[in-house]
Amino acid sequence: MKIVFFLLSLVILSSCGGDIDTKPDRADITLQFEHVVGNQPLNFTSEFRTNSNQSFTVEDFRYYLSNLSFENTQTGVKYEIPNSYHLIRENGTGIASLILENMPLADYDQFNFSWGIDAEKNTSLDQTGDLDPSNEMAWNWNTGYKFLLLEGRLTPSNQGLVYHIGSNHNYKNLQVAIPQDAQIDSRTQSTMVFKVDILKAFEGVSTIDIAVNNSVMGGPFADNIAINIAQGFFQLQEIK
Amino acid sequence: MQSKFKLFGIILLMLIAVASCDFIKKESEEPTPQPTALSVETPFYFGDFVIPADNSMTEEAVELGRMLFYDVRLSADNSVSCATCHQLQKGFVDGLARSTGINGRQTNIKSMSLVNVLWESRMFWNGRVASLEEQALHPIQDPNEMGMDLKELVGKLQSIEVYRDNFKKAFGAETVTADRIGKALAQFQRTLISGNSKYDKYLRDEVQLTAQEEEGMILFFTHPEPAISLRGGNCGDCHLSLTTAGANDGFSGFHNNGLDTDENLKPGLQTFTGNQADRGKFKTPNLRNIMVRAPYMHDGRFASIEAVLDHYNENVQLSTTLDVLILEGSNQPIVAGAPIKLHLTNSEKAAIIAFLHTLTDEEFLTNSNFSNPFK
Predict the structure, then answer these.
(1) Quick check: helix, strand or coil at residue A191?
(2) Statement: residue B161 has pLDDT above 80
(3) CA-based nearest residue in chain A for residue B245
(4) How many CB atoms lie within 10 A of CB A142?
(5) Among B47, B236, B327, whose Cβ lies nearest the Cβ of A140?
(6) Within the 206-235 window of chain B, which residues sit less than 8 Å (CB to CB) from chain A?
């Protein structure tokens, strides 16, 4: 009798299954970064042009994002990814991805992230993973990380193009709105597509002439570029 | 239905057969004690490393690797071992611009140091190999180095009793294979960790550097920025801080350091990648024990560290793939088209050399765990 009851309840449960609103508890959320120079996808072979018509090539491009969180600004529900330090690195294809695995879902309306490394982490180099100081982003033996590295050459002069940017005071909290219709809480996989336009580092608040300032590694001038980056560098395009 | 039963019967028979094979095998061999797992102790600031899952470290395999490393029987004429070109007291190089292989033949490139290879992901000056296991088999077969046919080597070692015993201890079976030779040699090399130089002790707050050494260290790791009067030796852009090694992600640790103009540039990494942009890029070596590792550069062209400093300071040759951080590294404002010069003073050069001396790790260079087990 017990068995029959058990079987019966199984039947009931499984038949109910289809009707229940099955929103997943967790999802993998991919952050996809489309690296571009103006309208062109970034690669390590093409010649690109700034808005002032200076041509250049890129050999290396990487930057840190950190302290990622998802939030509902109305209810205050917030999920902060623990130990969240991510080196985003161009590999020559124009697209870099970061998969945030198993994120707890809720009715989020905002994604928070920071450009750079917070001061607390930035004072110590005994780190591993994306903060391993042997990844070429450490400034030197005791002064933290470059928040952004862009290296290439001006053409046709073959001068170097070297931008190493990032000091504690350049660390920047950024937010993007997650639209309701993105339905991020009802899928087990979502992708947030960001456009990252290198030209935006050279314009915005300050216009940078890369022919004049082809090498910027710290110092006050680096702040001009950092401010540009904090303004319009990371643009959310779509959530799919 | 009947055929299903037949199939079941066949599977059952096969299972029995397999089980009995196993049984017979166990009967005929002595029970093998499990090799002793070995965990490598590393300075925390050297960062992440990977040991392949199919070659986890054991004391027995490391000891076997050490024997193989020092055994001249690995060469065709029994004259050369790995240690001929990789000598412990010289920081695992041989003091020569070109190494000497079998029958007195000269190799066409300088031997590389094996110091802290645990943290390396691409092997050889041109980066052609991605694992120590594979790397180890290259010099054995190179006609100018050890000139040995792998099949022949396997047979040769199989006939030597102590190797049969040691392969069994390390890998659970007496059978010598090329794969196991590579694995054992790789394991031994992963133990060659140099982390007790004066600089290491300084990093761990155990000692102080002298004022000159500290000045040298700061210069070493600083990219000069004349716009803000920041003086630098520009070394740490490639020889990264704490490890003093090149970057180990992909080919990031390969650089054209301005030895030659385009006409004379050797292909280097381009040999492997086929990419024109990689022409003249060579692997940036780890600098632990650099002062005992002369001559310098992939072709050993500089006999002294002073010559190396002079090169970076005033003799860099311009080429299309010259590293941009060298191209854009100077203590005076850079004039486009002018010769590339760092503009270090003599006392700054001397300070950098004083710092390089702090990278010598005497405990490493005399470590009896790394020395010839046949002596």
Answers:
(1) strand
(2) yes
(3) A134
(4) 12
(5) B236
(6) 217, 221-223, 225, 227-228, 230
A126 vs B: CB within 8 A: yes
For A150-209, how does the pLDDT look when each residue is reduced to its tens digit (9 = 90+)?
A: 999 999 988 999 999 999 999 999 999 999 888 888 899 999 999 999 999 999 999 999
How would you classify the pairing of strands A160-165 and A148-155?
A: antiparallel
Burial of B20 by CB count in 10 Å (0-12 exposed, 13-18 middle, 19+ buried)? exposed
Burial class (CB in 10 A: 0-12, 13-18, 19+), B183: buried
Chain A interface includes B85 (CB < 8 A): no
Confidence of residue A21 (pLDDT cuts 50, 70, 90): low
Please tell me the pTM assigned to this model: 0.87
Q: How far is the CA of A136 from the CAs of A131, A150, A153, A236, B334, in angstroms? A: 10, 12, 19, 27, 23
User: A138 in contact with B at a CB cutoff of 8 Å?
Assistant: yes
Mean pLDDT, residues B131-135 taken together: 97
CA nearest neighbour of A114 among A151, A54, A63: A63
Interface ipTM: 0.82
Chain B residues in contact with A60 (beta carbon < 8 A): 252
If you measure CA to CA, which chain B residue comes closest to A155? B320
**A218, B228: Cβ pair inside 8 Å?**
yes
Residue B2 has pLDDT above 80, yes or no: no
Whole-number Å distance between alpha carbons of B88 and B86: 7
Confidence grade of residue B336 (pLDDT, cut at 50, 70, 90): confident
Q: Which one of B45, B241, B336 has the shortest CB-CB distance to A157?
A: B336
- Each residue of B241-292: pLDDT tens digit? 889 999 988 899 999 999 999 999 999 999 999 999 999 999 999 999 999 9
The mean of the pLDDT values for chain B is 91
Across the interface, whether the CB atoms of B248 and A125 are under 8 A apart is answered: no
- Other beta carbons within 10 Å of B335: 8
User: How far is Cα B237 from Cα B258, in angstroms, rounded to an integer?
Assistant: 14
Rounded distance, CA B197 to CA A185, Å? Answer: 54
CA triple B246-B182-B299, angle to 5 deg = 40
pLDDT mean across residues, chain A: 89
Q: Which of A85-94, B239-248, B311-320 has the lowest mean pLDDT?
A: B239-248
Distance from CA of A121 to the nearest CA of B (A): 15
Chain A residue with the nearest C-alpha to that of B120: A134
A220 shares contact with chain B (CB less than 8 Å):
yes
CB pairs under 8 A between A and B: 82
Please tell me the total number of residues recorded for chain A in this structure.
Answer: 240
Torsion sign, CA atoms A36, A42, A46, A48: positive
How sure is the predictor about A8, in pLDDT bands with cuts at 50, 70 and 90? very low
Express each pLDDT in B32-61 by its tens digit.
678 999 998 899 888 889 999 999 999 999
Cβ-defined contact of A151 to B325 (cutoff 8 Å): yes
Of the residues B48, B118, B238, B240, the best mutation for testing chain A's interface (the one with the most A CB atoms within 10 Å of its CB) is B240
